[in-house]
Design brief:
Rossmann fold; 5-stranded parallel β-sheet; 16% strand
Length: 160
């Protein structure tokens, strides 16, 4: 059986990764997994700070790995709306596919900071439950760690 394809995303907070993941999942008849949705369901009301996010996000990874790899192994395409904004994050995501000999593609949403900040403001207004984490302050804090993808990482990069 031919393994499925894993689609991953990189781009700053507010770049449109979630919107793009929904579109691509529909277009490619893929299963879409959203870190935000999983964290909200498994750890409701427990993520208040960036530190909280890091703790709970890391707790999801072992089960996500098993789930994603089992789907890829049986030929299911998977779209992961999980952050791939650092080399380390992308390496973990890429290994999910590599370990089961699945193909992967990395979608890079290269969006100016001003547009990202406008989207974050709009999202905070539309989703009040995200008001504590979707702020300009958090955007600048996490953007310091953003690393654009590099050729040596071995991805098939789709730049949008």
């Amino acid at each position: 059986m031919t393994p499925g394809t894993l689609t991953l995303f990189t781009g700053k907070m507010g770049a449109g990764k979630t919107t793009c993941s929904k579109l691509l999942a529909a277009q490619h008849h893929a299963v879409r997994l959203s870190e935000d949705e999983w964290l909200a369901a498994v750890y409701p009301d427990q993520i208040k700070t960036l530190k909280d996010y890091l703790v709970y996000s890391n707790r999801l990874k072992p089960q996500m790995k098993k789930l994603v790899q089992s789907m890829l192994s049986v030929g299911t395409n998977v779209v992961m709306d999980f952050p791939g904004n650092t080399r380390q994050q992308r390496s973990w995501l890429k290994n999910l596919a590599d370990e089961v000999n699945a193909t992967h593609q990395l979608v890079f949403l290269d969006v100016p900071d001003g547009v990202c900040l406008q989207r974050i403001e709009q999202r905070r207004n539309n989703q009040p439950e995200r008001a504590a984490t979707d702020t300009a302050e958090v955007f600048h804090q996490v953007s310091r760690f953003f690393e654009p993808p590099d050729e040596d990482e071995g991805f098939d990069v789709v730049r949008l």
